[in-house]
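thread from #wetlab-drylab

HS: before we spend reagent money on co-crystallization trials with IPE, can we at least see a predicted complex? here's what I'd submit
DV: go for it
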Amino acid sequence: MIKLGGGLITHKDKLCTINREILDGITSVLSRTDKKLIIIHGAGSFGHIKSKKYMLQKGRVQGLDQDKAIAEVRTDMLELNRLVMDSLSSHGIIAESYPPHNWAEGTGPDFRGNLPISTGVTVTFGDVVKDNEKEFGILSGDDLVLRYALETDDVERVIFAIGGVDGLMKVPPSEATPDDLIEELTDEIEYRSEHYSEIDVTGGIGLKIERGARIAEKGVEVLLVNGYHSERVLSAIEGKMVRGTKILPRNC
Ligand code: IPE
């Protein structure tokens, strides 16, 4: 299973702008594995900017034109998904895509819905979904990763491909040197991370680490790698040694 971070495949601060070079680099290496992939992508600038402006992560808030924003973010996410699917098919990967607003309800790790799975490559993504209490909310791709990892048979490993950083660093990436990479993350390791909550409506790196640790507890390997180096993504998928952060189960 691979999560393509929204900050990796889009230009995060420019509304609805794809990072085509990076996306194509990754889909190209994905075509070189025989593994049966589940690909989950984030939103980046196709989701976070408008969601933040209209507070979609909070559910219904009076006084905001949220209905228009919900429709727009869903359309923008379908457009990003189309770009991902086109990039996959241009490299010969035939995949099936399942937009969560059609099958999932609720946000966080306990969202409801039967996880759709293709006989070939499965694709889904973070989305605006219905919610019983809040009316609607943002379901993060990281929660989709968690549930797919826990509920799909024979998941070998989960790779979080992130933008521009080699993995989890001991200090925020802006201050980090290559030596600050945490190669194996256990409970004992301390680090200081930043969350860009002014643009990010989901959980940033902290959410990946938390969900990753839960997946690792089930015996599935979890790795964070720099998606700017597509060869690392391929090595990680194949289980080869690679620069990145391996998330180990808690209390081990
Ligand atoms: C967010 O999904 C979905 C929307 C904002 C609509 P993610 O939490 O998976 O997105 P990234 O990876 O942070 O961009």
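DV: Residues 5-7, 42-44, 47-48, 51, 73, 77, 126-128, 138, 140-142, 201-202 surround IPE (CB under 6 Å).
HS: ok that's useful, forwarding to the group
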